[in-house]
């Protein structure tokens, strides 16, 4: 601990501001900034009070005071801001009892990691998320009683290929053709490289980056797997830096899962493996796709709890515009070595024991990574504890299946409402070890229903005018 | 091996995987099958299997475990109940699988560990781990294992609720102390005044498994240093580590709740209580207990709080508590959780706590000793100070003892704060089985018990918190008169009997009849004080007995009367007449046997009559007669003493006077209910009564019946006339004797049934001949009134035996000793031609003799209660000896010339073993053989199976052979090898303590003498040794019985605290405790053992007598209850105000004094509990 404090203080020497960051319930970073001079023993030991009442999903007004305590091991020099700033990720506490706040997503992730060890199954859960995103040059939207509108643009957008106003050089990418011609077709390589450099300077390890399938700037930067809590922290940094670098370059990046009609959406496939004593528990040379029983049971847990799980991993109404058959969307609750339409895939790039992992494909980057990763781990652990057999792998093209055959294979639910209902009905696996609490789950469900699902269902959709205006 | 039924096919490979892990030698020894059986017996076989698989996978040397576990399979049982009962605690073991040997030791599991024990261990941990986070993890690990130890003792049924909650509280208390010590920022032990108050269940030393712990810290003065200590302590207690966390700490009970300062000062806190606190905050402080830090400071604070409690307004408290509960329930209702919420719902733990706390606060100003923190202690105090009645105390304390383990077992599974009874049948069944309920209906039985408790608790709660509202009496519908005339349908004698005015009036009454107004009555008081009752109505079969019976039930006597019925219409008239229905006109003169009457009597009579007639019309005549018999019975004054002589009766059949009817004249002394019974009997025999006149002069009555036979013609056949007169005589006699019956109600009902049965028989006249003798009829009346149970026996199965038995008094007086029984049985068996006939003969003999002994008992021909038991046991012995020989012969024959294998011994256990059988006892047996070769097991297995075929029990539970008390219960072999008897029951063996204790009753019945002696010697060796007494296990066992077998809010004479089981356990524990050095205590019979304890000077004469009296009363009550209920299962004492209870009192010779009987029962129960407390104190 004292080493970490020393490191923090040495980083602090080169900055003017210290930014304290924490995650709200839906999964967006919030912050408070102090001049570096205030960073002393008092703040480090006792934290900093703040008003939690306006933070989404936190307390109500009448008990608004909360406390941020610095996780000094997370400090990094902000790669974006002009004024030299040290960013520190914080945990949220009750200011009087000094007990961790039950709805702090980081606390959930901490408890999930502890629970993993408590089960004796493994000591480490490695998580490797692949958050996809779009980079646009323009976005505008509006909604009123008499108007509904959104418009996005990108020089790469296929819809611009015949546009009259400006000159073109064939820079548009046809739908689903973005993966992965070299520049100049890929017009975003430099911007992605800048993003990668910023990410690396903030401490992330990056494996590669590339243009993704969709037209209009869909991108992917692959971060290296990490242990659960650290990985979720990294996702927060990732989204912050990607969006910020885009903005600095007069572009805009979005992690919303399905901004474009008619082309691929952005997912966040999550690679997962459990390790004990430095050994990957998911590897067994003799198993199907070199998967161990533990890995198969883990898959069994993921598949069994998928409907509820999606309430955390794919938690927006927009998520379900992505999770529809087609566009490589992983809507089928099955697992497969090769097939990308199965919810669980076993990547076969690597045959080494260390590389053996399960890839869960329904999640998307609109999730709160702390909650999503914890929930997936809990589902997998439940599978292991109950030796849930995932059945036979589906190594055929699931989309190519005749309709009748497809009907017998369960699919993910089709709406946010449906997964929230599923979560309400199936969440005992999340409560084990007090990792999730009833309070958090019921708050999550009512927040998502009241502020997202219901408002969407109340509003006429522009496409409805096309369908029905003349009716 | 076929897949067991419980196995989810998806787990088949897991089972295979576990079994494949068994070492080869164990597989050869059949352990794979045994293990599968043990798994199947658990509350949740699949969960148990999964955990067992994970457990064995994680062991470094599974073979060592398997060998050790099968050599002494106690660990297997412990692990099974753990793995099926608690996922959370299983997790603790799965984290540290190599620690399993620590769960092998029963003594360590049930050992109650004190606060000091815990502190000592924590101190050494603190010394061992100087670094805070490592220490926290170590403390979590330590706490987890201790939870596991407590939980396993609980799940395995080794510890009772009190032991469990006290240890859980000690554990939490020691950890709070240790954390406070570690986190101290100043000198120990907080001389500067910092204390932690345990609130809620921690304060009451009644913590549950998955509690938040409620804490309030308190300092003498403001101090940042002390505040840091408190913050650190809370952080440590709730820190999440790889070994879990210690507690969810709830600090919200401090002044100003969530927003209040964490560390109030004593003065500030008191000021807050005086000025700003809500009443419920004072109520919460009832449970506050200083548990860590400066305890004296805490006590000083509480001493200052008590006057505030004493001063609070009782009614204000009542309102507050009621409103609080209403709010809680409204909230639950909103979340759809009102039902089945054991902690907060309707009839919940909270109801009990609130009643206790309200009464404590209300009365503590005068009775400061009421301020107990522990709920059960508080209830006890409230009861002892007569603030809670015996009844309410029993409901609340038993309800609490029922609900708390329910809550525990809900929480134990996943360590969640679950408080709701599961709604799904599957989960409910699993919960029930974890709680020790068994069978297919486990879940629904649990549910029923829960509902009974909840209802009873809620009733007490409502009485305390709501003013009982008086039930509003519904207004009876007024009569709607309407005049229609019809008269010409009656016989000419009708006109002769009544004046024109009367006839006119009858016609008017008849005009008011309609389908929704079946009967009209009019009662007029005559100048003589007698009452003239006119009843007109539609005619229904069986109506006359109802009219007469109801008059009897209203306690009027019929002195005179004229009963007329409309003549049937001729066929051609039916089409022309407006109304072809037949009607009745009855005019009766009554005398009142009561001094005072309510003015509504006749209105009630009318309503009752109409109700009964409607029931008759609906075809529910059995229900009508049951109800009527009940109502008549209560009016019959009990008479004791000798059977009165029968009065002469004159009857005459006259076929000449009337052209249309047979006239039957009866002259005899007036008897109660005669008209009811005789009209009843005539209806049963299909005689149709058209008119009756009744004329009573003095005590003699002259009745004339105008009858036709079932075809509407006169009764002309001679045998039919004979039947008529005989039945009437029988009825007359019976009603004469009715007041002598212990239960007139069932006598009346049964008599009706008897007549029906009798008259269906070919030559019943002949059989009745003996009944005309008064002593025989008296015996029948007694028998009929005593027992539904015997009645069923008699009517359905023993009909042939009844008359010989009841008519031959000498046969009944005979005491048949074993020899007599044996030779009689053998001669009957000798006459049988083949095995099937022999089996029939054996069972016939058994049933007849049981019935005979029962009759002897009923007729008080058995000199003492204990003799009755001896007679039944002798019979059982004799029958079993022949039965086992028969079984062996049959198996030998089936197997051809199988060699007569080795030695065997059939022994009785339980009531039969103790020679203390009663009505409807079952027979517990164990069959042991000495294995000469591998075939012996197969052979004797079949012998025992055959024995079960040979002995048939006519009714479930009665003389049923029960072989449960064998190694591994239903999972074990029916026949037990001597070897497995030894390994199982030896003190180091896997037998549960209660199973071993059951051997105390072992008594060999048949077989090889030497082997029999070996068994008794082994019994004595295993039982009577020092340290054999395991009181926590006995208490835990009893608690389970009470929970699972006693209906909420009732006394079960056998299983309730202080019931016969407690008396028997009391004696057995003393036998075990002292039997090692005093062989004379080793008795199988309870009364003999009590006497032996007296002779040995281990109990005083007064204690001896009190125990014998109490136990005897309870045993006799058991017998009486079984007799009256006709089944062996339900030994719940009926409510005091019920007929059934009144019957018990009569049966036990206490006449009508039900209150005295109830008092004696309660006293007996108390005596047994008090004796148990004092006599076990030194053990």
Structural key phrases:
A: alpha+beta, Ubiquitin-like (UB roll), Creatine Kinase, Chain A, domain 2, 10-stranded mixed sheet, 22% strand, B: alpha+beta, 50 helices, 56% helix, 9% strand, globular
Could you please describe the fold and organization of this structure?
The complex is a heterodimer of chains A (471) and B (1179). Chain A has 471 residues and is of the alpha+beta class. Chain A has two domains: 2-101, Glutamine synthetase, N-terminal domain (Ubiquitin-like (UB roll), Roll), CATH 3.10.20; 124-468, Glutamine synthetase/guanido kinase, catalytic domain (Creatine Kinase, Chain A, domain 2, 2-Layer Sandwich), CATH 3.30.590.10. Chain A has 13 helices and 18 strands. In chain A, the strands form three sheets. In chain A, strands 7, 10, 11, 12, 13, 14, 15, 16, 17 and 18 form a ten-stranded mixed β-sheet that branches. In chain A, 49% of the residues are buried. The model of chain A has no long low-confidence stretch (mean pLDDT 89). Chain B is α+β, with helices and mostly antiparallel strands and 1179 residues long. Chain B is built from 50 helices and 17 strands. In chain B, helix 7 (87-95) crosses helix 10 (132-155), helix 25 (543-553) runs antiparallel to helix 29 and helix 28 (621-633) crosses helix 31 (744-759). Classes of the chains: A alpha+beta (471), B alpha+beta (1179). Chains A and B meet through helix 3 of A and helix 4, helix 7 and helix 13 of B.
């Amino acid at each position: 601990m004292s080493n970490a404090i020393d490191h923090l203080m040495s980083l602090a020497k080169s900055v003017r501001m210290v930014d304290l960051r924490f995650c709200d319930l839906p999964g967006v970073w919030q912050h408070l900034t102090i001049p570096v001079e205030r960073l002393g023993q008092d703040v480090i030991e006792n934290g900093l009070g703040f008003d939690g009442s306006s933070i989404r999903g936190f307390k109500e007004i009448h008990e608004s005071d909360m406390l941020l305590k610095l996780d000094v091991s997370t400090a990094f020099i902000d790669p974006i801001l002009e004024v030299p700033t040290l960013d520190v990720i914080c945990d949220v506490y009750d200011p009087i009892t000094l007990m961790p706040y039950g709805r702090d997503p980081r606390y959930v992730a901490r408890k999930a990691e502890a629970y993993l060890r408590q089960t004796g199954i493994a000591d480490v859960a490695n998580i490797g998320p692949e958050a996809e995103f779009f980079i646009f040059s323009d976005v505008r939207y509006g909604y009123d009683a008499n108007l509904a509108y959104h418009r996005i643009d990108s020089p790469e957008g296929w819809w611009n290929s015949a546009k009259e106003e400006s000159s073109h050089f064939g820079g548009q990418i046809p739908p689903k053709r973005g993966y992965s011609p070299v520049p100049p077709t890929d017009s975003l390589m430099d911007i992605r490289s800048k993003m990668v450099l910023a990410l690396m300077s903030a401490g992330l390890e990056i494996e590669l980056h590339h243009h993704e399938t969709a037209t209009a700037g869909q991108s992917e930067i692959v971060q290296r797997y990490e242990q659960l809590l650290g990985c979720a922290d990294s996702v927060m940094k990732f989204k912050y830096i990607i969006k910020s670098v885009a903005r600095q370059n007069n572009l805009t990046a979005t992690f919303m899962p399905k901004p474009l009609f008619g082309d691929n959406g952005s997912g966040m496939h999550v690679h997962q493996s459990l390790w004990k004593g430095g050994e990957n528990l998911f590897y067994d040379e003799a198993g199907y796709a070199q998967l161990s029983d533990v890995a198969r049971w883990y898959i069994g847990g993921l598949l069994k709890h998928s409907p509820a799980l999606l309430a955390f991993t794919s938690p927006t109404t927009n998520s379900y515009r992505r999770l529809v058959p087609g566009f490589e969307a992983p809507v089928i609750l099955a697992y497969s070595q090769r097939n990308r339409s199965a919810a669980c895939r076993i990547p076969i790039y690597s045959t080494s024991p260390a590389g053996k992992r399960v890839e869960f494909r329904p999640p998307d980057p609109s999730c709160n990574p702390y909650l999503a990763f914890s929930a997936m781990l809990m589902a997998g652990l439940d599978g292991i504890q109950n030796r849930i057999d995932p059945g036979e792998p589906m190594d055929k093209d699931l989309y190519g299946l005749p309709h009748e055959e497809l009907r017998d294979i369960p699919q993910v639910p089709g709406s946010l409402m449906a997964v929230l209902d599923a979560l309400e009905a199936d969440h005992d696996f999340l409560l084990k070890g007090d990792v999730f609490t009833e309070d958090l789950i019921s708050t999550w469900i009512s927040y998502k229903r009241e502020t997202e699902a219901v408002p969407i269902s109340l509003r006429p959709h522009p496409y409805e005018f096309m369908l029905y205006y003349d009716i | 091996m076929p897949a067991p039924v419980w196995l989810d096919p998806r787990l088949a490979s897991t089972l295979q995987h576990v079994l494949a892990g068994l070492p080869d030698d164990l597989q050869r020894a059949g352990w794979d099958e045994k293990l599968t059986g043990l798994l199947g017996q658990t509350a949740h076989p699949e969960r148990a299997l999964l955990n067992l698989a994970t457990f064995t996978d994680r062991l470094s040397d599974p073979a060592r475990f398997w060998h050790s576990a099968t050599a002494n399979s106690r660990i297997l049982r412990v692990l099974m109940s753990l793995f099926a009962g608690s996922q959370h605690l299983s997790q603790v073991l799965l984290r540290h699988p190599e620690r399993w040997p620590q769960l092998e030791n029963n003594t360590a599991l049930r050992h109650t560990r004190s606060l000091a024990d815990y502190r000592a261990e924590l101190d050494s941990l603190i010394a061992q781990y100087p670094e805070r986070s490592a220490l926290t993890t170590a403390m979590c690990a330590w706490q987890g294992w201790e939870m596991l130890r407590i939980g396993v003792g609980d799940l395995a049924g080794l510890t009772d609720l009190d032991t469990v909650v006290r240890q859980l509280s000690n554990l939490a208390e020691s950890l709070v102390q240790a954390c406070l010590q570690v986190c101290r920022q100043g000198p120990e032990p907080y001389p500067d005044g910092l204390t932690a108050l345990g609130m809620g269940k921690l304060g009451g030393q009644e913590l549950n498994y998955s509690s938040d712990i409620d804490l309030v810290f308190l300092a003498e003065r403001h101090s940042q240093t002390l505040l840091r200590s408190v913050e650190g302590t809370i952080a440590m207690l709730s820190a999440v580590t790889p070994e879990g966390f210690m507690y969810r700490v709830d600090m919200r009970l401090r002044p100003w709740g969530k927003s209040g300062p964490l560390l109030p000062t004593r003065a500030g806190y008191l000021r807050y209580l005086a000025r700003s606190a809500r009443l419920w905050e004072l109520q919460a402080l009832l449970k506050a207990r200083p548990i860590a830090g400066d305890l004296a400071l805490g006590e000083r604070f509480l001493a200052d709080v008590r006057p505030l409690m004493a001063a609070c307004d009782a009614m204000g408290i009542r309102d507050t508590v009621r409103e609080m509960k209403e709010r809680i329930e409204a909230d639950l209702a909103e979340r759809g959780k009102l039902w089945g919420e054991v902690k907060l719902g309707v009839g919940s733990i909270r109801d009990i706590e609130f009643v206790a706390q309200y009464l404590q606060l209300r009365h503590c100003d005068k009775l400061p000793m009421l301020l107990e923190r522990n709920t059960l202690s508080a209830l006890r105090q409230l009861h002892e100070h007569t603030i809670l009645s015996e009844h309410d105390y029993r409901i609340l304390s038993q309800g609490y003892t029922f609900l708390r383990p329910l809550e525990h077992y809900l929480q134990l599974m996943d360590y969640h704060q679950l408080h709701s009874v599961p709604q799904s049948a599957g989960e409910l069944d699993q919960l029930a089985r974890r709680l020790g309920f068994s069978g297919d209906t486990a879940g629904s039985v649990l549910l029923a018990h829960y509902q009974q408790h909840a209802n009873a608790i809620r009733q007490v709660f409502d009485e305390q918190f709501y003013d009982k509202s008086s039930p509003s009496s519904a207004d009876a519908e007024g009569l709607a008169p309407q005049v229609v005339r019809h008269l010409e349908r009656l016989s000419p004698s009708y006109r002769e009997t009544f004046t024109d005015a009367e006839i006119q009036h009858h016609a008017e009454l008849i005009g008011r009849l309609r389908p929704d107004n079946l009967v009209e009555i009019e009662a007029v008081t005559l100048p003589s004080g007698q009452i003239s009752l006119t009843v007109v109505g539609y005619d229904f079969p069986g109506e006359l007995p109802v009219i007469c019976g109801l008059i009897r039930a209203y306690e009027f006597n019929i002195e005179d009367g004229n009963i007329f019925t409309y003549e049937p219409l001729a066929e051609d008239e039916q089409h022309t007449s407006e109304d072809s229905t037949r009607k009745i006109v009855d005019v009766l003169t009554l005398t009142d046997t009561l001094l005072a009457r309510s003015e509504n009597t006749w209105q009630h009579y009318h309503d009752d009559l109409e109700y009964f007639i409607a029931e008759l019309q609906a075809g529910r005549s059995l229900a009508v007669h049951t109800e009527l018999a009940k109502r008549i019975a209560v009016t019959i004054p009990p008479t004791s003493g000798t059977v009165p002589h029968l009065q002469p009766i004159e009857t005459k059949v006259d076929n000449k006077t009337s052209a249309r009817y047979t006239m039957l004249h009866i002259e005899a002394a007036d008897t109660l209910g005669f008209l009811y019974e005789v009209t009843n009997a005539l209806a049963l025999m299909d005689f149709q009564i058209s008119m009756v006149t009744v004329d009573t002069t003095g005590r003699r009555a002259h009745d004339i019946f105008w009858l036709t036979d079932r075809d509407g013609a006169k009764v002309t056949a001679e045998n039919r006339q004979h039947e008529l007169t005989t039945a009437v005589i029988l009825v007359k006699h019976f009603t004469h004797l009715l007041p002598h019956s212990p239960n007139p109600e069932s006598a009346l009902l049964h008599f009706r049934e008897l007549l029906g049965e009798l008259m269906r028989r070919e030559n019943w006249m002949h059989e009745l001949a003996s009944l005309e003798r008064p002593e025989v009829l008296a015996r029948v009346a007694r028998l009929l009134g005593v027992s539904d149970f015997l009645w069923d026996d008699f009517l359905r199965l023993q009909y042939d035996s009844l008359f010989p038995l009841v008519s031959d008094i000498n046969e009944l007086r005979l005491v048949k000793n074993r020899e007599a029984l044996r030779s009689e049985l053998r001669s009957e068996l000798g006459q049988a031609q083949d095995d099937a006939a022999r089996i029939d003969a054996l069972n016939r003999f058994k049933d007849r003799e049981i019935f005979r002994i029962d009759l002897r008992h009923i007729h008080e021909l058995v000199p003492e209660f204990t003799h009755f038991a001896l007679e039944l046991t002798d019979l059982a012995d004799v029958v079993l000896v022949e039965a086992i020989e028969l079984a062996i012969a049959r198996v030998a024959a089936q197997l051809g010339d199988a060699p007569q294998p080795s030695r065997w011994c059939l022994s009785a256990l339980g009531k039969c073993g103790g020679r203390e059988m009663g009505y409807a006892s079952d027979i517990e047996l164990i069959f042991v053989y000495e294995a000469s070769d591998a075939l012996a097991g197969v052979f004797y297995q079949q012998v025992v199976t055959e024995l079960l075929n040979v002995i048939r029990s006519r009714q479930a539970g009665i003389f049923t052979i029960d072989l449960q008390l064998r190694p591994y219960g239903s999972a074990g072999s029916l026949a037990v090898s001597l070897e497995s008897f030894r390994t199982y029951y030896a003190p180091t063996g896997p037998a549960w303590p209660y199973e071993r204790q059951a051997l105390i009753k072992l008594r060999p019945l048949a077989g090889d003498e030497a082997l029999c002696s070996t068994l008794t010697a082994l019994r004595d060796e295993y039982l009577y040794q020092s340290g054999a007494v395991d009181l926590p296990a006995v208490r835990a066992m009893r608690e389970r019985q009470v929970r699972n077998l006693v209906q909420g809010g009732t006394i079960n004479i056998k299983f309730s605290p202080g019931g016969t089981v407690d008396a028997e356990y009391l004696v057995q524990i003393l036998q075990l405790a002292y039997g090692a050095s005093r062989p004379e205590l080793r008795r199988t019979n309870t009364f003999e053992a009590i006497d032996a304890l007296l002779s040995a000077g281990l109990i005083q004469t007064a204690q001896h007598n009190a125990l014998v009296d109490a136990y005897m009363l309870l045993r006799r009550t058991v017998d009486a209850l079984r007799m009256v209920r006709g089944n062996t299962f339900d030994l719940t004492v009926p409510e005091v105000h019920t007929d059934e209870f009144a019957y018990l009192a009569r049966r036990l010779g206490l006449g009508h004094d039900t209150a005295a009987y109830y008092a004696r029962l309660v006293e007996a129960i108390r005596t047994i509990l008090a004796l148990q407390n004092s006599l076990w104190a030194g053990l």
